[in-house]
Task: structure prediction
Amino acid sequence: IEKNGDKIRGCKNDKTNSTLCQNLTAQAFDNGKQYLLNTIDALSNHLKSLESQVQGTEELDDDDAKYNLNNINFLLTELSDLRSKVQSATTKDQLVQYSKDLKNLLKDVKENSALSIEHIRAGRVGEIVVRAEHLQSQLAKVQYKFGQNITNNTELNNLVKDFNAKIDDAKSKYNQALI
Result:
């Protein structure tokens, strides 16, 4: 398109509608159509990859996973419908309209992708907080067991207090991030 852009612009002024102009216009139309189809395919592949990430993660609860998968499937359906429209397009005006539709869908794909990834990250952090709580209880048991055998366990108690304070801080920051 870039190489033939000047020629195509020159064809607009050419009232004879020469064969060269017709060929260039047809080639530009086909290139534009192919570009839209390639973009739709890339977005579809991205959504399918995101779908497999959501399905494969254990960090999301069933409701979050279902919500994300429903959004992804909706966007995949929209892209598939748009792909069919682009394939059957016959005019430049149709391609321009489908390009605008694709641009709007791209915004939705970006938002949905960011939301799905954020849900996965939040789930992972939540899992880390839960594991830290388990560590706290195990540490309390170890502290109790060793505390009976050690006459001066002040250092151990200080380390456990520091650990518990850090876990509590992490929990509060995690809960604030969820709000």
